[in-house]
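explain this:

___
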Amino acid sequence: MPIRTIICNFLIYSTLLISLNNFIVGKTRIWPVGHLGFFGLGMFIVGILSIKLCINFWIAVGVAIIVGSITAIVLVIFAKKLKEDFFVVASIAICSIIYTGQEAIKPGGYESDRALTNMDPLILILIWFLIVIFFAGRFYRTPLERILSLVRHDKNLAKVLGISPDYYNSGCLIIGSVLATITGCLYSSNIKATDPEMATLYGSFLIFALVIFGGLNSILGSIIGAAMISLVPEVLSEILKRIGLFDPDEVMKFIVGIMLVIFLIWRPQGILGKNGYFFDKKQII
């Protein structure tokens, strides 16, 4: 695979993981397993508007933001009505609906022989990556971080202090979902096509595994997770091609599964996370 493609994939996955880890899971401990569906939604809208109908790419991005926001609000409604376990199922259902809808309307996705933007897609993706990292980093230094810390550790105490857990959790969920939608748009501009297989249920579980590997609420952990998914498969593929015994994709799935079990048992906080999901004892006040 060309170096440019590897760099683009690394930046895309880094941004996607930050949108999930540092804006949703790490802040709220809500687990929208179908988060990758918003990434697919962004690609699909660009495919219909920019590739099929030849509408300006930035107009398509604006439409994707609106549609992504509405879809996220629907997910928020589920989050308020359902308990955490059932919310995970609702999130998976939305991801499946988006994937099935793409395959039903245009099997295999849309393709274009022209550039979707006047700017180099790699530059666009790099700028977007830096913007997301900047805001994720600033988030740690705002009073919102302390409020969200209180909400995820003791919702009853937060309510006593007049803080609405649903309000802040919903805001994080919507922001993270919209960031993933925009990332999907930019990925589509890079490959000049849409790829429904990027937003499958397996991909969603893989993204969550990488969040656990890197560490909850850690920006550097998200980047490490992105490096694992964009660089490790390339190295593994080269090694296995020389051996000629195993399918690299199947071996990668096996490795991810084994690592996920190991991390959940012996280091649930991930590589750089300070606290695990099940053993979070951080002092908040």
In short: The chain has eleven helices and no strands. Residues 203 and 221 are 18 Å apart (CA to CA).
